[in-house]
Amino acid sequence: MRICVYQGAATFLDVEGNLAQMERIAKAAAAQGAQLVLFPELFLCGYNLGSDAARVADSVDGQSTRRAADIARRHDIALLYGYAERAAPNLYNSAILIDNAGQTCANYRKVHLFGPDEKRIFAPGNDVVAVDLLGFRIGIMICYDIEFPEFARMTVLKGANLLAVPTALTPPYWEIPTTIVRARAYENQVFVAYADHIGTERDLTYIGLSGIVGPDGRDLARAGESDVTILTTDLDPARYEASRAANTYLVDRRPALYGSVASR
Predict the structure, then answer these.
(1) What pLDDT does residue 118 have?
(2) What contacts 1, CB < 8 A, 6 or more positions away?
(3) Which residues are known to be catalytic?
(4) Single pTM value for the model
(5) Cβ count near 103 (within 10 Å)
């Protein structure tokens, strides 16, 4: 599978503008032969929403999803992007996966909400999501989720061999996109695709450093801190199989001893 990760700035609080941007990126990615393009967290509206969240939220089958599905069909490419989901009485920080035929494959609600602002605006999700697409089983996580090794491992145990992670990362968390994301790939022998914003929204500035990491923990593609870019690489299943043969963490686990890890 050829995958693209888009790193750039969403147009803050402008869903229509971001759908137009999504179409431009999808067209460019498809021209590179990509089959899936990953966008950042809350890409459709911007991340630093505050009291504006309800105004820019949409339902999972709402107008914005229908527009994105049209884009996917028109350019024959799957899309995975973040948006603010309205599901009364709650709002969720969600990511939706739409295949190249415009069908919704999965809708994931962020499980680990970060900081007081997210916890005030959004309700947490409660599901581990992994779905089959394009010869891979794609596990969807959002930003802070990837920083919990237990949660990444749960997703991999559902069969995921690619973790797709829209994110909105700010200082001082410089080690997350490199050290942590590489560790999650290596310890689980999976590909990880990680898409961050750049630029500034209100009082938040994003650090970029989006990347695609192989199952051996090595970068296949990496953006800088301020690049507007489409990272593109081929995910070779043989690389995944070779890593699992070399590093046998999953078969050597002793889960009967690990119960206390999940204790409060």
Answers:
(1) 98
(2) 35, 36, 134, 135, 136, 234, 235
(3) 41, 110, 143
(4) 0.97
(5) 12
